[in-house]
Amino acid sequence: MSLSPNSERAYWLAWSQIRGIGPVLIKRLYQAFGSMSEAWQALPSDLQVVEGIGGQTLETIRQAQREVEPLSLLAIHEHNNLNFWTPSDREYPQLLWEIPDPPPILYYHGHLIDWNERNTVAIVGTRNATPYGKRWTKKLVSALAGRGFTIISGMAEGIDGEAHKACLEVGGQTLAVVGTGVDRIYPYKHKSLYEQIVASGLVVSEYPQGTAPDKTHFPARNRIIAGLSRVTLVMEAPERSGALITAYQANEYGRDVYALPNSLEVSEAKGCLKLLGKGAQAILGVDELLEALGMLPNLDQPTPAIAISDLPLLQQNILQVIGFGDPVGLDWIVEQTKSPSGEVLGALTHLELVGAIAPYPGMRYQRLA
Question: What's the pLDDT tens digit per position in 51-75?
Answer without folding.
Answer: 999 999 999 999 999 999 999 999 9
